[in-house]
Hints:
This protein has 223 residues and is an alpha/beta fold. The protein is 43% helix and 23% strand. The protein is built from 8 helices and 7 strands. It has helices at 3-17, 22-33, 43-55, 70-76, 92-104, 118-128, 145-155, 181-194; strands at 60-64, 84-89, 111-115, 133-138, 156-165, 199-208, 211-220. A 7-stranded mixed β-sheet has the order 3-2-1-4-5-7-6, with helices on both faces.
Amino acid sequence: MAKRHWTPIDRYLTDLLVAPDPALDEALAASAEAGLPPINVSPNQGKLLHLLAQAVNARRILEIGTLGGYSAIWLARALPPGGQLVTLEADPRHAEIARANLRRAGLTEFAEVRVGRALETLPELAAEGGDPFDFAFIDADKEHTTDYFDWAVRLSRPGGLIVVDNVVRGGAVVDAARDDADVRGVRRFLEGLAAEPRVTATAIQTVGSKGHDGFAIARVLGP
């Protein structure tokens, strides 16, 4: 089956299982109008993140890579009253669009968008000494995925979940002819994940409107 089959199936599943939502639609429209790349998660992937965060009763969520805030809306809506999403975005313009989208969705009190390179804002977050995170979603530049994951583990509670997106990259992860920085970053991450004693993890291929890709999911065991 090719993408021309996957996309209608995604649409069918989304129409059945993901209710229409003006705030999410407006977030996508605003991001497109601003010229942001259409690399946000799909609606059914967004709902999966939402359900996983709810399944671990997440009160604090960390997101690395905000873009226009589409996945941030899904994650923030999984929080109970008093919960918090901290989402990190390197591009000030993207962060501005994400803040507007979160504000339109009525989630300002739940979501904080921090601007700056994640390798700089993550140590700042750790230095603040807040409560550990229950759930983390990593969807940023792939070259530094291993570093982002290490920080996410350090900042998470035992039993917390970490989801890492785009780990298959259309099959490039196993294509010896592909050696760009993103593919090398994903390979480095997966090889490190296999040997990481602080988590138990797996990875899953996905197909759909976003093509052929996949995600890794890890449960934090402890320090």
